[in-house]
From TrEMBL, chain A:
The keyword Acyltransferase belongs to this UniProt entry's keyword annotation: yes
Identification of the protein by name: 3-oxoacyl-[acyl-carrier-protein] synthase 2
Keyword Acyltransferase: yes
Pathway membership: Lipid metabolism; fatty acid biosynthesis
Domain Ketosynthase family 3 (KS3): 8-424
From TrEMBL, chain B:
Modified residues (O-(pantetheine 4'-phosphoryl)serine): 38
Domain Carrier: 3-78
Presence of keyword Translocase: no
Record's subcellular location: Cytoplasm
Protein name: Acyl carrier protein
Principal location class: cytoplasm
HAMAP family: Acyl_carrier
GO molecular function, one term: acyl carrier activity
Length: 427, 80
């Protein structure tokens, strides 16, 4: 479908936007990330004192110019109450990406050729919780008319399209923690297939509410041993890891058909060259044995990209700081074989936590920034790996290394796997 | 009393529609002049019901199009 011949359309990234626990802003987030800063701290959005997990990666409030979230700079005050926070964060990232790309379609034809695909793993959980409480209190007839559109996952894409007049495909991916990666991959395919020339794609998430944290606690998924030292809690591959740390935020890219981008002289961050998907058919929360589903997703992405493992210089791992980290490592090593020794792999979730449905989009952007700057981001808190590897997992400090091709992995509950291959752009 | 009602209605309109107080003139239409959409007007009527402890049935709500419509309806209900 996406074409295996030589006529396949090339898809490049011409705009990026990030809202993360490190900062609001793609470049400030990146600067802090490669400076080994952590965005993890005590939960402030609700009283978590009764829960086993009391830490998270929250998007910092503060002046926009210092990388904080000042919501009125992104969403008019009157509109804010019509959206859950995940949409606020998605819009802040989406606006950054669109403005960064400089793409402002004026003609009807150009508007119809521009689409949006922004997913989320969970959607407006806090809004649903708050309205459930109102119903339980006998106020079913008093629910806000904005309750439903505040909570729906595809409303980030909806609001962004309304704001900019993007009339092309309007879609939203829901594949738990793989949503952001699937969105970028699927949106690239829409461009390759000719459904759009430009797609604004990514993920947004904000599930740091009582229901979200308590639910993941019950699933035994969250770190609970580091409440007193939050910045050390997310420690992928480390012997002491005991679960993931919930993060919130959004990552959005502007994807564009290469000739279209070239014609308008757009700045190009990199190219989406490969995309692979698979299902585990195994268990609702646990990965398949030896992470064989992840293996097949990566294998398919490499095949799609027509690159060999030896060409991949950097892998941004799913690496959530759970037992599954070593299974992913094993799958990467099996796929790469002897080439593993020449590849580096890190988990940036060590610094920002797990952004669930936004994770893959933010991490794809980190891959693009890493290739652009020749700097690979670190895995914080990797003091003592629980298993050996020939791969450099970049403990503690970023390292300078020029990389031309990167692989980004995301895996979600339900046994869904997605991998992207991204390439440094050379004009 | 009716001045009190008028002031309270205006305050609710300012809060919910994010408009300036000076825009909230008696004959201002919520949709045509104050930028409300159909969902905004549903929410506005709910806010009136809450603030004045009155019930505004749907057929009555549909006829409340301007600031004055709201003030008159609520004043009548409170007097009854």
């Amino acid at each position: 479908m996406s074409g295996s011949g030589t006529d396949r359309k090339r898809v490049v990234v011409t705009g990026i936007g990030v809202v993360s626990p490190l900062a609001v802003g793609a470049e400030l987030t990146w600067k802090r990330l490669i400076n080994s800063q952590s965005g993890i701290g005590p939960i402030t959005q609700f009283d978590a004192s009764d829960l086993p997990a009391r830490i998270a990666g929250e998007v910092p409030a503060g002046p926009t110019e210092e990388g904080g979230l000042t919501l009125s700079d992104w969403v008019p005050v009157k509109e804010q109450k019509k959206m859950d926070r995940f949409i606020h964060l998605g819009l802040a990232a989406g606006i950054q990406a669109v403005e960064d790309s400089g793409w402002k379609p004026e003609s009807e034809e150009d508007r119809c050729a521009t689409g949006v695909m922004i997913g989320s793993g969970i959607g407006g959980l806090k809004t649903i919780y708050d309205n459930s409480l109102a119903v339980a209190a006998g106020k079913a007839r008093r629910l806000s008319p904005f309750f439903i559109p505040s909570s729906l996952i595809n409303l980030t894409a909806g609001h962004l399209s309304i704001r900019y007049g993007f009339k092309g495909p309007n879609h939203a991916v829901v594949t738990a923690c793989a949503s952001g990666t699937h969105a970028i991959g699927d949106a690239s395919r829409l461009i390759q297939h000719g459904d759009a020339k430009v797609m604004v794609a990514g993920g947004a998430e904000s599930a740091i509410c009582e229901l979200g944290i308590a639910g993941f606690c019950s699933a035994r998924a969250l770190s609970t041993s580091f409440n007193d030292s939050p910045t050390t809690a997310s420690r992928p591959w480390d012997r002491q890891r005991d679960g993931f740390v919930m993060g919130e935020g959004a990552g959005v890219v502007v994807l564009e058909e290469y000739e279209h981008a070239k014609r308008r002289g757009a700045k190009i961050y990199g190219e989406v060259v490969g995309y692979g998907l698979s299902g585990d058919a195994y268990h609702i929360t646990a990965p398949a044995e030896n992470h064989e589903g992840a293996f097949r997703a990566m294998q398919a992405a490499l095949k799609d990209a027509r690159v060999s493992p030896a060409e991949i210089g950097y892998v941004n791992a799913h690496g959530t700081s759970t037992m599954a980290d070593d299974l992913e490592l094993g799958a990467v090593e099996r796929l790469f074989g002897d080439a593993a020794a020449g590849t580096s792999m890190s988990s940036t979730k060590s610094a920002i936590g797990h952004l669930l449905g936004a994770a893959g989009a933010v991490e794809a952007i980190f891959c693009l920034q890493a290739m652009r700057d020749g700097i690979l981001p670190p895995t914080l808190n990797l003091d003592e790996p629980s298993s050996e590897s020939a791969m450099d997992r970049i403990p503690h400090k970023a390292k300078e290394q020029q990389v031309d091709v990167a692989l980004s992995n995301s895996f979600g509950f339900g046994g869904t796997n997605a991998s992207l291959v991204l390439k440094r752009f050379r004009g | 009393m009716s001045n009190e009602i008028a002031d309270k209605v205006k305050k609710i309109v300012v809060e919910h529609l994010g408009v300036e107080e000076s825009q909230v003139k008696p004959d201002a239409s919520f949709i045509d002049d104050l930028g409300a959409d159909s969902l905004d007007t549903v929410e506005l009527v709910m806010a009136f019901e809450e603030a004045f402890s009155v019930e505004i049935p749907e057929d009555a709500a549909e006829k409340i199009a301007t600031v004055n419509d709201a003030i008159e309806y609520i004043t009548k209900q409170k007097a009854a």
